[in-house]
Design goal:
Layout lengths: L1 E5 L4 H11 L6 E6 L2 H11 L3 E5 L5 H8 L4 E4 L4 H15 L2 E4 L4 H8 L2 H7 L2 E3 L4 H14 L3 E12 L8 H11 L16 E5 L2 E5 L6 E4 L5 E6 L4 H8 L5 E9 L3 H13 L5 H14 L1 H4 L11 E10 L2 E9 L7 H12 L7 E3 L7 H8 L13 E7 L2
Parallel strand pairs: 1-2, 1-4, 2-3, 4-5, 5-6, 6-15, 7-12
Antiparallel strand pairs: 7-13, 8-9, 10-11, 11-12, 13-14, 14-16
């Protein structure tokens, strides 16, 4: 099977390529980017299965022509708002399957409008894989632990403290070396507002900076979180009958970064700057005053976390179920690769533009994910869970 890997020379793309190259099912990986020399250099690093491909995703005619020689498009490129819809259109035109790492809700809404076209061509296009897929699958799993689910909170706590790979210092250094910011910073486009959320059984738009939410962290601490424009609030209510509230939430470590992040995201929303300019302004501001921005309060949680909280009723009593994975896997690229392989193996029967929760369930997904654990973590429980009565 042949994979066309968009954004194949970026941070996520290179990791995805390395994982794909290990699979016997995969015979060729087209490492696609706009610069042939870059694609050639990284193809040599990946090995014999990799082939350099020079293409601009926005060139729909050329991309669909190239894609026709492959079995699936795997999209790790960004910014999501620019590349997701054209990439899906190219997949439909070429008659090949598709999956991506996209995380922006407003763009996902446009992608879902292509559902009918994808169904007509017999194409499976699964959007929002990566860590977003894990959070969606955990949400459905959590809802199933209760007899009646009223509220779902899907939460991400991102650690940007010094020494982390995505810390402002390291991210700024890489941006200056590469000449552009990395795709992972697409997340800055999710909090400019107004953000789509699901409350009291209906969709509405809310300004994130005006509606902070106090949420329980797995450690037991309460942290302040903010609404994010991800596909979760758009798609999850369709998968969980009776749910009244679905919130996609994020927060940062150190917590004072939230304010600056929201400010820069709002600048994008108001048209004052683009994603590149907002991210660079954010990183440069933080690095210029690290004492102010990069010192966490004593006792504050540390590390990267994603967790889901389902609140409702069990046996007639108010209850809460919380679950979260150990961060011992590459939760961005491992889910993406699992989705791609399942599509290629013919294990996904549905056609159309689909969210992960429409095609997969958590237990079998985690069983497959366990194969990617390092030797030292083999046999460990990936999913942590906590159930408690609230009355």
């Amino acid at each position: 099977m042949k994979v066309l890997l968009l954004g194949g020379t970026g941070v996520s793309g290179k990791s995805a390529a390395a994982l794909l190259a290990r699979e016997n099912l995969i015979t060729e990986i087209g490492l696609a980017c706009r610069h042939l020399e870059t694609a050639q250099r990284f193809a040599a690093e990946i090995g014999d299965k990799a082939r350099p491909v020079c293409v601009d995703i926005k060139d729909l005619s050329r991309l669909s022509s190239i894609a026709a020689d492959y079995d699936i498009i795997v999209n790790t490129a960004g910014p999501t708002s620019v590349v997701q819809v054209p990439a899906i259109q190219a997949a439909i035109e070429a008659g090949v399957h598709y999956c991506d790492l996209a995380i922006i809700g407003s763009t996902a809404a446009k992608a879902l409008e292509l559902d009918g076209q994808a169904q007509a061509r017999g194409i499976t296009a699964i959007i929002g894989t990566g860590w977003l897929a894990i959070m969606s699958l955990m949400a459905v799993h959590g809802a199933h632990q209760l007899d009646e689910t009223e509220q779902l909170s899907v939460c991400m706590l991102a650690d940007y403290s010094p020494g982390n790979f995505f810390s402002p210092e390291q991210s700024l250094a890489r941006a200056r070396e590469l000449g552009h910011v990395e795709t992972n910073w697409d997340f800055m486009e999710t909090a400019g507002g107004p953000v789509l959320t699901y409350r009291a059984g209906r969709w509405m738009r809310v300004e994130p900076n005006e509606h902070s939410i106090e949420v329980i962290h797995p450690s037991g601490h309460k942290i302040t979180a903010y609404l994010a424009d991800t596909p979760i609030a758009l798609t999850l209510p369709h998968s969980i009958p009776g749910v009244q509230t679905v919130s996609s939430l994020f927060s940062m470590i150190p917590p004072q970064l939230n304010k600056l992040f929201l400010q820069q995201s709002q600048r994008i929303s108001r048209g004052e700057t683009d994603l590149e300019g907002a991210v660079m302004a954010y990183l440069e501001t933080v690095v210029a005053d690290k004492e102010r921005w990069l010192s966490s309060p004593p006792g504050y949680p540390s590390g990267w976390w994603m967790w889901d909280i389902a609140t409702g009723y069990k046996n007639g009593r108010k209850a809460r179920y919380m679950c979260w994975p150990d961060m011992i896997l590459d939760w961005t690229n491992v889910p993406l690769i699992i989705v791609a392989l399942r599509i290629l193996r013919g294990e996904v029967s549905k056609h159309g533009v689909l969210p992960p929760e429409a095609c997969f369930e958590l237990e079998s997904f985690f069983q497959e994910a366990a194969q990617y654990l390092s030797e030292e973590h083999r046999g460990k429980t990936i999913l942590n869970k906590r159930f408690e009565w609230l009355e």
